[in-house]
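Bit of a strange request maybe. I'm writing a small parser for structure token strings and I need a real example to test against, not something I typed by hand. Could someone generate the tokens for this chain?
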Amino acid sequence: MDYLCEIVQGLVALAVLALIVVLLVAHITAGKVNMTRHEKEKYFLSATGEKQIFPSLQDPFSVELSVVVPAYNEELRLPLMMEEAMDYLEERQKKTPSFTYEVIVIDDGSKDKTTQVAMQYTRKYGADKVRVLTLVKNRGKGGAVRMGTLSSRGRLILMADADGATKFCDIEKVETALNEINSKPENMAISCGSRAHLEKESVAQRSLFRTFLMLGFHFLVWFFCVRGIKDTQCGFKLFTREAAVKTFSCLHVERWAFDVELLYIAQCFKIPIAEVAVNWTEIEGSKLVPFWSWLQMGRDLVFIRLRYLTGAWKLKAAVKTD
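Reply from user aminoacidic:
Good idea to test on real output. This should exercise your parser:
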């Protein structure tokens, strides 16, 4: 019995030591909010090739809707998404002339012709409606979304994936849910597209290993960061401008788990969040590598919680970009 007690005590001591080591690693390796941008990233090109400076999220809104589209090596998939989005937005503007919009395509350091493809839409519709932000180096999807959001003019800001997996007209569902939220007095609200209603069908099509990874990820999200949101990863999210300022100013994670940190920040600030079922189709060419991407996201989820817990990361007021 004494021998058994010593084993248990040893295991407890090892567990405590491991926890201390993880806390120290999480705290020491925590990076700061990266709000800086290269000089070239401060400008966009007009339809005639003239350089113009991007506005700031800190400025008052000047259009009704900003659509932020992160794109990395998307020269093949981007046109389909842009055609669908522009057709919808142009038709909506015809029906409601007071509706104004912009689409910001963020080329996240692509090695293909993503910027050239996106610029075709600037030349077609004008830079007031389509702007291209080309990042000097790859930041990751979260970094690209943040840079585009910080450069937006919209009263509402929609995050949409370049692959067009979500039907763009579903913005009406997401927008309706946003409007139903009691966002007073500070006009803070977020509405998230969700694929949770498709989960049973997707599980049936997945391998047992991928299903295990998915369920493990959902558990880590729930346990460490976000409660009450079934699908944190759908790339179709709508923010009021005020909520975007509040959340993106605190965002640290620039890779795949950035959605989770955004929603964690929102819940810490008690920003109301709606979740709405949207149509979604899996599009070939995903940049997500099943095992390694999930492993990276799992690590990020644990570190998000620990870094806020240890004070390495803090929730603070919005700051100006450099």
